[in-house]
Amino acid sequence: MEESNHRIAYALHMKRKWVYGKDDKDLLERKGIPLTPEEFDVSMKGKIFCPICTTPLSRSPDMRSVSTNSRTAHFKHKPTYSKVPCRLKTKKKEGLSYKNEEEASKAIEDEALVIVSDWMSQPPSDDDDLDENGEFNQTAIEDEDGPDTEIAIGRHKGREFKLPSKISSVTALCRDFDKNLHRGYHLPDSKFPMLLSDMLFDTDRITEDTDKKKRLFFGKIVDYRRLSKRNIIYIENEEFGEFKIYTWPRFDERKHIDGKSEGRYILFHSTLSWEGGIPRSFVDNWGQYSLLPQKYEKHLVGYKKFNKRVN
């Protein structure tokens, strides 16, 4: 099965010997060290594994970040294990599909698939969003059970199943972001489920031809300004120089977004509009946007590098 390069956000590196099909999968999940392609070195060859199917991976190229044909370094499954099923082998354009409602429900139960019917309009509690270490507070981002939702996830066009959903937040996507990159998500107004890594849309890629459909955007904050009613977060954009996100001050304050956030990455789910030739978005719900914890920024940096090579 053909797979998209950079589909595997990280591999699990085992310092001690671990053999696929022989040793305990739980041991790999507990002791394996998450590793990006940029962090790989030659001593790790033969000791990296897929975090989903656990088969051995290779890194292409082995040593340099960029090979002679300018392909960005990435992990890939080995041909020897081509018949082992893994959702990271699915072609990007096809999204994720399930044979029946039972299979999809099992994926939800196993936390391999998340259906988000809507974004939280208000914070779910009075707790601060960040703990004393600057990590997201679980209480503050707790999902609510949403309505059963008709989702097109069958192999045949038009086939829909009714599945349980969550009312969630982008903050929830950013907590354990590395693991979430390999999970399937159906976000509000999506046509079908996709891996979170395939949903990400870099604000640097926005052009005059980019349509206005809802997307999960990400970008680097370059400026921040307070207005009388709204705030504006300015995001990096190569084509137009900037991208504006209009936010509510009370939400920014709770999310710890201010002038000190310059240089940080932000994720937001919204439609695209225009203001005097400058792209912009309005985020009205608390759950629509979030800063990404700095420890996960390496995944977005690698994603940006890859997409600049292929686009």
Describe the fold and architecture.
The chain has helices at 25-31, 101-109, 170-174, 177-180, 196-199, 249-254, 297-310, and strands at 11-13, 33-35, 48-49, 57-60, 74-77, 113-119, 144-145, 149-151, 161-163, 166-168, 184-186, 194-195, 200-202, 215-226, 231-235, 243-247, 265-270, 273-275, 278-282, 289-291. By secondary structure, the chain is α+β, with helices and mostly antiparallel strands. Residues 66-70 have low confidence and may be disordered.
Topology, element by element:
Layout: E1 11-13, H1 25-31, E2 33-35, E3 48-49, E4 57-60, E5 74-77, H2 101-109, E6 113-119, E7 144-145, E8 149-151, E9 161-163, E10 166-168, H3 170-174, H4 177-180, E11 184-186, E12 194-195, H5 196-199, E13 200-202, E14 215-226, E15 231-235, E16 243-247, H6 249-254, E17 265-270, E18 273-275, E19 278-282, E20 289-291, H7 297-310
